[in-house]
């Protein structure tokens, strides 16, 4: 018969087992908590670029425009008579308006929605960076659109054109000089018209790529689209000039196509 344990005497075997069981449970819970934290952090890091918008479904249209812009740029850069290399190397920014339809004229006078990508850095001499969303409106755009969707591409040829478009609406031919761009890798890009033009414009419809004049039309930052895409109120200037801006994954093809075609600015 075992009597009561005298104070100060060693704990019974049963109590030792209980203490060990409690310690084991605490260790298991701690390990589970650490695993859950690791899984959560891994998910955040993996999905981070995809979650630039607070509500991804809200930015679906903007993401599709970015993907379509990338496809347009890839295809244009691979046609035999495309943008002269010399001009592309001098461009500070490129604006792409994919699949502009004539029917869009009924929507508030707006013809197209697309994006602008610029070279990084204050002097636009770095690699191609994050995109800002833009709108093409009014002027002679409607005259250039037939019954099918038309893609438009704009090259911003100097710092003034790029800086102007980052901060405000720009009217082609008035606020900045503009001209139809030449095509063909061997085309001469040093004629007076191209040397003076701050923005060169191109169109592609029914598979035909050509320079086109869009004087009188306007390009402007699309503030609402940028808010949806980045999940916060932000300006085109902030998106393009701030070095820590993370480009949405939908823009990867567009940025990669430009970086491969023209990795360095040549003034």
Keywords:
267 residues; nine-stranded mixed β-sheet; single chain; 9 helices; 9 strands; globular; 2 domains; 19% strand; alpha+beta
Summarize this entry quickly:
The protein has two domains: 13-48; 54-261, no CATH class.
Topology:
Blueprint lengths: L12 H35 L12 H17 L8 H6 L2 E8 L9 E9 L13 E6 L3 H4 L5 E7 L2 H9 L2 E2 L6 E3 L11 H5 L2 E7 L2 E4 L6 E4 L1 H8 L5 H6 L10 H10 L6
Parallel strand pairs: 6-7
Antiparallel strand pairs: 1-2, 1-4, 2-3, 3-9, 4-7, 5-9, 7-8
Helix pairs in contact: 2-9
Report on the structure:
- The chain is an alpha+beta fold and 267 residues long.
- The protein has 2 domains: 13-48; 54-261, no CATH class.
- Helix content is 37%, strand content 19%.
- It has helices spanning 13-47, 60-76, 85-90, 141-144, 159-167, 192-196, 223-230, 236-241, 252-261; strands at 93-100, 110-118, 132-137, 150-156, 170-171, 178-180, 199-205, 208-211, 218-221.
- Strands 1, 2, 3, 4, 5, 6, 7, 8 and 9 form a 9-stranded mixed β-sheet that branches.
- α2 (60-76) packs parallel to α9 (252-261).
- The longest helix is centred in the N-terminal third of the chain and has 35 residues, at 13-47.
- The radius of gyration is 28 Å and the shape is globular.
- The termini are far apart.
- The model is unreliable at 13-18, 28-51 and 104-108 (pLDDT under 50).
């Amino acid at each position: 018969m075992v009597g009561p344990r005298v104070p100060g005497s060693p704990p019974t075997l049963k109590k030792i087992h209980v203490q060990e069981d409690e310690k084991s449970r605490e260790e298991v819970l701690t390990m589970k908590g650490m695993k859950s934290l690791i899984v959560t952090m891994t998910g955040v890091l993996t999905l981070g670029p995809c979650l630039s918008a607070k509500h991804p479904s809200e930015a679906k249209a903007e993401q599709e425009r970015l993907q379509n812009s990338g496809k347009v740029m890839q295809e244009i850069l691979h046609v035999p008579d495309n943008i002269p290399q010399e001009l592309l190397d001098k461009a500070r920014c490129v604006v792409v308006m994919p699949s502009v339809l004539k029917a869009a004229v009924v929507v508030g006078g707006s013809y197209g929605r697309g994006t602008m990508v610029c070279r990084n850095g204050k002097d636009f001499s770095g690699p191609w960076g994050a995109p800002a969303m833009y709108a093409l409106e009014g002027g002679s755009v409607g005259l250039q659109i037939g019954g099918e969707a038309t893609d438009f591409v704009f090259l911003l040829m100097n710092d003034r054109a790029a800086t102007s478009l980052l901060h405000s609406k720009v009217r082609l031919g008035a606020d900045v000089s503009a001209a139809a761009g030449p095509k063909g890798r061997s085309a001469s890009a040093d004629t007076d018209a191209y040397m003076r033009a701050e923005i060169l414009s191109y169109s592609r419809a029914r598979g035909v790529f050509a320079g086109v004049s869009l004087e009188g039309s306007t390009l402007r930052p699309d503030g609402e689209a940028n808010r949806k895409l980045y999940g916060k109120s932000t300006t085109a200037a902030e998106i393009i000039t701030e070095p820590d801006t993370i480009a949405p994954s939908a823009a990867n093809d567009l940025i990669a196509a430009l970086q491969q075609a023209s990795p360095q600015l040549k003034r």
